[in-house]
Amino acid sequence: xxxxxxxxxxxxxxxxxxxxxxxxxxxxxxxxxxxxxxxxxxxxxxxxxxxxxxxxxxxxxxxxxxxxxxxxxxxxxxxxxxxxxxxxxxxxxxxxxxxxxxxxxxxxxxxxxxxxxxxxxxxxxxxxxxxxxxxxxxxxxxxxxxxxxxxxxxxxxxxxxxxxxxxxxxxxxxxxxxxxxxxxxxxxxxxxxxxxxx
Length: 198
Description:
The chain is an alpha+beta fold. The protein has 2 domains: 6-81, K Homology domain, type 1 (Ribosomal Protein S8, Chain: A, domain 1, 2-Layer Sandwich); 85-183, 2-Layer Sandwich (Ribosomal Protein S8, Chain: A, domain 1). Helices cover 48% and strands 18% of the residues. It has 8 helices and 6 strands. The strands form 2 sheets. A 3-stranded antiparallel β-sheet has the order 1-3-2, with helices on one face. A 3-stranded antiparallel β-sheet has the order 4-6-5. A hairpin with a 2-residue loop joins strand 5 (127-131) and strand 6. Helix 6 (115-124) runs parallel beside helix 8 (160-183) and helix 7 (141-155) runs antiparallel to helix 8. It is globular and about 50 Å long.
């Protein structure tokens, strides 16, 4: 009996196609090997077709292709091969009223000389890519949720300083949580989880 094959079609920006293919096709080949899929790329249209017999592998390949399409370098996108890693894509237009507003919001997330993005990445261990009209985050599930909340609050207008303080609290809580898991000893529980006015 022939095994069932699944297929996904997706479109990525044409200028990202060369990155997805890689030097002499090495990235495409590695992705096909790691996910046991077949990837066909239409360079002119930016259309990518992924096919394979395992639905989960196919989904992983699709997420990695999406991540490359959203500006991540392939090494970071390949982190999505790990089961506890995820990708979040946020449309800046969902927060912007005008095109000028979108440019301003993008600037808020990146920060002066990339400071805001760097702090969020450092505090959460996630990677952030601001590309076109989207903002994408790759990271471990729990940390991804924290990075997403920080970015969402920035886009909604919360001051940078308040978000940095909130991130610091989250990082401390995660450290404490690990400490409790390892030692069974509680340090400080029940800390506030929301980004609030201070």
